[in-house]
Amino acid sequence: MEGPQRPDEESRGDAVSAPRPSRSRTGSVPPLAGFTVAVTAARRAEELGALLERRGAEVVHAPALRIVPLADDEELRDATKELVARPPHVAVATTGIGFRGWMEAADGWGEGEALRAALARSEVLARGPKACGALRAAGLREAWSPVSESSSEVLERLLAREDLEGLRIAVQLHGEPLRDFLDALRGAGAEVVPVPVYRWTGPVDPNPLDRLIDAVLAGGVNALTFTSALAAAGLYARAEEHGATEDLTRALRDRTQVACVGPVTAAPLLARDIPAYWPERFRVGALVRLLGERLPATAPVLPAAGHTLEVRGTAALLDGELRPISPTPMAVLRALARHPGAVVSCADLLGCLPGGGTDEHAVEAAVGRLRAALGAPSVVQTVTKRGYRIALDPTTACTP
Fold it and tell me: Cα-flanking dihedrals φ and ψ of residue 183, to 5°?
């Protein structure tokens, strides 16, 4: 969510574009097949998960937060009554769902008609098209909405007003306090009335989030998706409870991609030097399309024993055909692919197996299962008394 915006709403603002993969991909295999992608969203999680699954991903759902409605909250009721009694000069609608929720709550208290009348006397600014839609559904009309759909442009417009001193401005919040936004207006002399329509807290059941953190640390998740800065904060709050903050940060820097719906969502991750990225259009669909470009582009493509081998998260593509591989032989394949053509010792491969181990026969068994899963035993070559290697074709370059 691009600020101000509710945590699971599509974000807006500036964007970082991703380059398209430089090598060709088979059209018969979905772009995210063989990859595990986690969804941390609380709202719209099913929609995001369905889009990812449609592109072949194995999806892990682990909400990092939950919505707490404030329909009966005294703070929201007090703010509503205050605005009915003293209508604002300017009102800012930041999200469609938040504004609709406010109107529904006001109707429940018998204040809906009076609130709409008060806002009709105000200059109403809408941050984006969803907020505009909610305003019009309430019988109101926005005076202005930025083409960029960015809250920073809304703030700039307000701060540029010559009559800001003493101006009464109502700002519909959306789960975050928006301190910088509100403080900037107050610092310029405006009277600000925050309208908190809902808030966010930790998930009801933290177990899926705990399992997600463990899976990220174990290298079992290829990408995390975020549609809210608060979801990133929730993930780290849970990791901190288990003393896993530093390990999580290392994993997100080195192994697991982080895809965000927009730059504000990415901000707390970028602050930890985690290389998060986001699409040019801050929408869930655009996020999934970008992930479908970025994630396959990191998969090693190796010419081996006359075949083309692409190593993904939980599967391999052999000559364009998807070959699912169970975790233990997949760990062997990833270790061999990190050193294409080089011999990797049994001892080193043993250390890569899930859960470790001390018996090198476990490596032999894993290699046997890997060869069977690939359906091309010659791809993995045994080097007697030394270990194993990918049988890299000597005259063909590989793509990292």
Answer: -65, -35
User: Cα–Cα–Cα angle for 63, 67, 71, nearest 5°?
Assistant: 165
Distance (Å, whole) CA 104 – CA 97:
10
Q: How far is it, in rounded angstroms, from Cα 311 to Cα 293?
A: 15
Q: What is the mean pLDDT of the chain?
A: 87
Domain residue spans of the chain? 36-65+202-297, 68-200, 301-390
Give, in order, the Cα–Cα distances in Å from 32 to each of 28, 274, 302, 331: 12, 22, 19, 19
Domain 36-65+202-297 indexed as CATH 3.40.50.10090: yes
Whole-number Å distance between alpha carbons of 220 and 154: 41
Q: Do domains 36-65+202-297 and 68-200 have the same CATH topology?
A: yes
The residue-averaged pLDDT of 115-135 equals 95
φ, ψ for residue 207, nearest 5 deg = -60, -45
Task: Write the CA distances from 397 to 302, 333, 380, integer angstroms.
Answer: 8, 19, 18
Predicted local confidence at residue 24, as pLDDT = 37
- Give tens-digit pLDDT for 335-368: 999 999 999 999 999 988 887 666 788 999 999 9
Question: CATH number for the 301-390 domain, one of 1.10.1060.10, 3.40.800.20, 1.10.10.10, 3.40.190.10?
Answer: 1.10.10.10
Which of 113 and 4 is assigned the larger pLDDT? 113
- Which two three-digit tokens encode residue 128? 């984006």
Q: Tens of pLDDT along 24-82?
A: 344 589 999 999 999 998 877 999 999 999 999 999 999 998 877 665 578 899 999 99
CATH class label, 68-200:
alpha beta
